[in-house]
Amino acid sequence: MQKSADIQALNHLVEKESAFLEKLREVAGKVIVGQEAMMDRLLIGLLTKGHILLEGMPGLAKTLAIKTLAQAIDAHFSRIQFTPDLLPADVVGTTIYNPALSEFTVRKGPIFANFVLADEINRAPAKVQSALLEAMQERQVTIGTQTFKLEEPFLVLATQNPIEQEGTYPLPEAQADRFLLKVKIGYPGIEDERTIMRRNLNDEDIPVPQVVSKETLLQARNTVKKIFMDEKVEQYILHIVFATRTPAEFGLPELAPLILYGASPRATISLAKATRAMAFLQGRGYVTPDDVREVCPDVLRHRIGLSFEAEAENINQEAIIQRILDTLVIP
User: Fold this and answer.
1) Given this model, what pLDDT does residue 167 score?
2) CB distance 208 to 71 below 8 Å
């Protein structure tokens, strides 16, 4: 059991190491209106080396958010528009023959950036998706006979349009599982949209200063790993994940016919990592059950398979997750 003095020391360390978040949020808030939850999820991805899958309608500032974040951290931003005719070489790069030197030279693709926006990832065929996901998982790219490490921080933000599905290649479950979070983006409120409208009518070009160095961010990652998680919170995380696999054992027999398959062990790891990062965002050196509940839908919604019965009754993953959270005892 960790002593209270140790927890207090951790709190002081986290307060010191998370001070940059205030500046980062302030800068982002001047450019991005009404998407604070999305920005927090992007920061969770950065702090845990996890990638984010964003689902939302066009025009909800997904591209602007990651571009603003890249500028504020003085990092290299790259955008890939996924289309059905895209090739793996268009993402990772290729070798080109140089007649003058009589040799092949490597031309790196847009994956070689700190922040990569994979726009409409379900528009590209499986070969391209797998090339991107391999780089995400291994954090390296092989072009010809050469292997290149990707520079840290490295964050992939992939987007999907939830409405238009014609000519798309949905991500297989095993590939979707590699994303730390799947975040659903909603429309802004009326006052936020009024602000957005006025800014665009005035054609305001808001500069984004660099307020955080890459070194500060990488140091923050090390601090996140030190955040204390009590055994009771660990048990709570395990119970949530196991309730998606064997709901009857946790007093939820009515969910069994609705779930085709439950969350994988990667979900347990992702939930623990994201929960620690959420505590860091709150400036705390320890995790609370509220941190778990806050990030749980984003971690699990793409890791639970729905049965035909659930789809027929219009029951989605969010409803199942909420039912689990409402039933399990909070430590």
Assistant:
1) 52
2) yes
